[in-house]
From TrEMBL:
It holds the Pfam family DUF4136. Keywords: Lipoprotein, Signal. Residues 1-20 form the signal peptide. The keyword Signal applies. Residues 34-169 form the DUF4136 domain. This is Lipoprotein. It comes from Caballeronia sordidicola. The lineage of its organism: Bacteria, Pseudomonadati, Pseudomonadota, Betaproteobacteria, Burkholderiales.
């Protein structure tokens, strides 16, 4: 019996150790047939909102230029580019056990207290969206997410941008996970 409880403890520690490792980078893309795959002929104009991060805009410009896309004025661009980037604390949810005699409020999920599972984790999310200037429709969108323990948004942005444009343009509704983004 003692051997069984030891193996159970080892299994539990292995499972928890797997949870503590770095999560993979998730990349997903959406592409309509109207999106040109001839990047050398594509022109773009960044559509930045007031207060937008100039570092993110510069990195996006660099990534798009590296792909052969050319900047143009808003009136002459093939695509208007919208950029979204955020870093936020990752929430840890604990699912409450629901017993037959328990009240309904005891059966929902609850937020784990800060530090309950060790150091805080952060989710970095980047989305680059190509909108056809003539049609106004989204013709290509790529999103990249990654979770780590670094709260600095500027530290994750270059790697996420590089990952978003690796293999550009990705196929329609392609999703993939990478061990690392950089």
């Amino acid at each position: 019996m003692k051997l069984r409880s030891m193996s159970g403890a080892v299994l539990l520690l292995a499972l928890l150790g797997g949870c503590a490792g770095e999560q993979p980078v998730r990349v997903s893309a959406y592409r309509e047939s109207a999106f040109s795959t001839d990047s050398a002929a594509m022109t773009y104009a960044l559509q930045l909102q007031a207060g937008a991060d100039s570092n993110a805009a510069r990195l996006l410009d660099d990534a798009m230029t590296a792909q052969g896309l050319r900047p143009a004025s808003t009136d002459n661009a093939d695509y208007l580019i919208e950029l979204g980037y955020a870093t936020r604390p990752q929430r840890v949810r604990v699912q409450a056990a629901c017993l037959a005699a328990a009240s309904e409020s005891a059966c929902g999920d609850t937020e784990a207290p800060p530090g309950f599972f060790g150091r805080k984790r952060y989710v970095h999310a980047l989305t680059v969206q190509f909108v056809g200037r003539a049609s106004g429709a989204t013709v290509y969108r790529v999103s990249v997410t990654h979770a780590d323990r670094d709260p600095d948004p500027d530290a994750a942005l270059p790697a996420l941008m590089k990952c978003a444009f690796a293999g550009f343009p990705l196929q329609n509704a392609e999703r993939r996970e990478l061990a690392r983004c950089d």
